[in-house]
User: Which sequence fits this backbone?
């Protein structure tokens, strides 16, 4: 029986991915900053562990408690939307601590056991802001673009040891809790000088033509974890797939840019 460790399982993509792997017969190590009862079904194949990906001691403790794992899913993340001019550098650093350095730290901690076994998969859940430049998401995009490049390079390194690295790129999921994943209200980061620019973006956000469901991401992660090919990218959701394929560049692309900038992969709850 295989084991997967998933970060950011308190809601959204992480929670649905944990349920999906469990439904497929895997043992699931579901992690979150503040574990809560009742989120996942009672099962001897599910363990809920505390984990803060920004703290080395927390990472070490979680991996020791988990034991051997076959797949690591780096899903935890936080959001950040607004004009870059108005975004405090403290918040930019917070984005990178979780979205970038947290992913790298978890990956680095998991590699030794996978390399020694010459098997394993690391799935990094990023965002479709990495597929096209999106407005009002500069810092967030930077934190995700870093992981795109990181994973692509890492895949070459790990392939020599029979270990695979993958990227899952979700679109906008309006049913997730992305708005709860940032500690700065959106409008606080839209100065008056940016109001006219931001207004049509927020208006388009209210009526997305295509969306991503939590189940889309869970299925994409499952595919990425089990695909034995050399494929690196797995867009998740109708909007993400359309953007990745370059369809309707103006219609889907612009609408996508709106809701990707506002929500996108922010369903991942790092708390």
Assistant:
């Amino acid at each position: 029986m295989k084991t997967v460790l998933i970060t950011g399982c308190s809601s959204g993509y992480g929670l649905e991915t944990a349920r999906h792997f469990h439904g497929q017969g895997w043992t699931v190590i579901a992690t979150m900053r503040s574990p809560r009862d009742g989120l996942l079904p009672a099962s001897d194949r599910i363990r809920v562990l505390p984990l803060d990906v920004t703290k080395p001691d927390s990472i070490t403790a979680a991996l020791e408690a988990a034991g051997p794992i076959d797949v690591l899913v780096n899903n935890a993340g936080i959001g950040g939307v607004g004009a870059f001019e108005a975004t405090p550098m403290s918040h930019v650093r917070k984005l990178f601590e979780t979205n970038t350095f947290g992913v790298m730290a978890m990956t680095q901690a998991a590699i030794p056991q996978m390399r020694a076994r010459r098997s394993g998969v690391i799935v990094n859940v990023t965002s479709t802001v990495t597929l096209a430049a999106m407005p009002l998401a500069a810092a967030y995009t930077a934190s995700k673009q870093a992981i795109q490049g990181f994973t692509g390079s890492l895949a070459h390194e790990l392939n020599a040891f029979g270990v695979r690295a993958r990227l899952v790129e979700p679109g906008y999921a309006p049913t997730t809790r992305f708005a709860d994943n940032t500690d700065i209200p959106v409008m606080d980061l839209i100065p008056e000088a940016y109001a006219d620019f931001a207004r049509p973006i927020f208006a388009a956000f209210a009526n997305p033509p295509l969306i991503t469901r939590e189940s889309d991401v869970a299925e994409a992660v499952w595919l990425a974890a089990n695909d034995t090919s050399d494929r690196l990218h797995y867009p998740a959701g109708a909007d993400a797939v359309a953007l990745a394929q370059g369809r309707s560049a103006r219609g889907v692309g612009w609408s996508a840019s709106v809701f990707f900038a506002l929500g996108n992969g922010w369903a991942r709850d790092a708390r």
Remarks:
- The longest strand covers residues 163-170.
- The chain has one domain: 3-267.
